[in-house]
């Protein structure tokens, strides 16, 4: 399993760069984990990137898990009623 951590903002201002970075990450393995513990701010553009990555991983028959969701990530996911949609275990710290 290959792991990657995102740190800083996952917002409209960083979404395009993060999207490209994450698409490159999808090429590295068939079993992937994205650590979200250091995401300091997220908005709907960031959420769209996470949704797109899950869809792209499924399309490529790869397993992509999101782990260690930060408070910022959980707030947006809960506000959009998307927490359960990703199918990842959410552990509150």
Automatic annotation (TrEMBL):
Protein name per the record: STAS domain-containing protein
Organism annotation: Undibacterium fentianense
CDD domains the UniProt entry points to: STAS_anti-anti-sigma_factors (cd07043)
Domain STAS: 1-93
Pfam families in the cross-refs: STAS_2
């Amino acid at each position: 399993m290959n792991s990657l951590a995102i740190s800083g903002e996952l917002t409209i201002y960083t979404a395009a760069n993060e999207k490209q970075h994450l698409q490159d990450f999808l090429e590295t393995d068939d079993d992937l984990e994205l650590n979200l513990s250091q995401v300091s701010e997220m908005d709907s553009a960031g959420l769209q990137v996470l949704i797109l990555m899950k869809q792209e991983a499924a399309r490529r028959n790869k397993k992509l898990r999101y782990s260690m969701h930060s408070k910022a990530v959980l707030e947006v996911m809960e506000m959009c009623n998307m927490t359960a949609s990703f199918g990842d275990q959410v552990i509150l710290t």
